[in-house]
Amino acid sequence: MPIIVNLDVMMAKRKISLNELSERVDLTLSNLSILKTGKAKAIRFSTLDAICRVLDCQPSDILEYVNDEK
Predict the structure, then answer these.
(1) Model's pTM, two decimal places?
(2) In this predicted model, what pLDDT tens digit does every residue of 11-66 receive, in sequence order?
């Protein structure tokens, strides 16, 4: 899939653990882990909003589009 999830990068920059982020965005550890590993098929805007608010970042800091077709 051409969408890359850089959640782990932003978490490292903000020095926040998966457990802490899970608590602060009110998302299960399991669902957040699926998102972090890039296995998620979708993300709700409300979830993206909460993550960006907690990490003080933009959606583009977390999600990246890579066009492999050349």
Answers:
(1) 0.89
(2) 999 999 999 999 999 999 999 999 999 899 999 999 999 999 999 999 999 999 99
Whether the Cβ atoms of residue 10 and residue 53 lie closer than 8 Å to each other: no
**Cβ-Cβ contacts under 8 Å for 65 (sequence gap 6 or more):** 2, 3, 4
Residue 19 CB: number of other CB atoms within 10 A?
10
CA-closest candidate to residue 57, choices 25, 11, 18: 11
Angle, helix 18-25 to helix 29-36, in steps of 10 degrees:
120
CB within 8 Å of 60: residues ≥ 6 apart: none
* Closest residue by Cα to residue 35 from 6, 68, 1: 6
In this predicted structure, the answer to whether residue 2 has a pLDDT above a threshold of 90 is: no
Structure-token pair, residue 51: 């993550």
